[in-house]
Amino acid sequence: MFACNGSDTTRSKQEKSDSAYAIIGKVTGQDSGWIYIIHRQTGVIDSAALDHGYFKFKGKADTAEICRISLNDQVKSFFLENGKISMLIKKDSLANALITGNKAQDEFNYFQDQLSNSVRTRMAEVDKAYDAANQNNNKKAADSLDKLYTALDLEQKKLVIDFVKSHPGSIVSAFLIFNNFSYNSRLGELDSLYHLLDTASRSSYFGKQVQNLIEKTAMTSVGKPAPEFSGEDVQGKTVSLSSFRGKFVLVDFWASWCGPCRLENPSIVKAYHQFHDRGFDILGVSLDDDRADWLQAIKKDKLNWTQVSDLKGWKAGTAELYGVKAIPMNYLLDKNGIIVAKGLRGEELTNKLSELLQ
Predict the structure, then answer these.
(1) What does 135-157 look like in DSSP terms, one character per residue?
(2) Domains of the chain
(3) Is a pLDDT exceeding 70 seen at residue 8?
């Protein structure tokens, strides 16, 4: 389903290597300008000037890591590890760049280009149409596109599972599990995928991220007590989750900048007005980092319930506590603070509340 994703910027501690990487590249159709490498795991950004279209980067990689190459506001992900890497890029077509030279990247190319290319192309088309529906506030069209995207997402996940089974020792396998199964993850599914990986892959950066995700998913599974937290509301008053005991409460993770969240808000507003007098309440947790944008969205979307935020964006402590990697995401708690449902979208929330509050 459509969601706004976050990127993990915490670096794992691993042994350093004495070898180095060298990236040699060529941009056809552009002689000058700047090209950038964004290290997702550290947040570091490297830059290089184009010289008659040629560029180079040098450095040391502690471990294979997923990075982004950026040119003229275009980005493409690739795996960086020590050794020689070559890149052939067309000026206005970075997405189709040819990147080769290391084992992880070759495996990533195989998955992207030979296994999932068709699915990703269709997902991009649906994504574009969804954005248009979102901008036009066409919820009916957006809901239809959301269902189509969900079907394509399941197709993509099947490809990931097949790849992991045939490449248990690949760091790419660990990355694909984390990248494709972190939203509203299911404990049994995650655990079974993790145990398909060999020891080396489990000890990689993304292997450890999957392990961490499993631990957080176990903490927030249906039937578990919701982890306690507190935060400052719009007036600066500290509000705790435990203060909602005695009510069914939806812990709703969202942000003003998240299109799918804003499109989801009318359904949540509807449920709030329908069930509030019957013992239902909402605690909104915003991943905003701009107070003015947060307050403006609350007013515009008529979110007339308690909202908290530490205004740290994806670094929000509550998001880390719950293992939230994409939004919108929510957890429905019973009167005793036990999680009874999670990841409810559209009419799912209304239907669940109708069942619980008969």
Answers:
(1) HTT-HHHHHHHHHHHHHHHHHHH
(2) 9-100 (2.60.40), 117-219 (no CATH), 230-356 (3.40.30.10)
(3) no
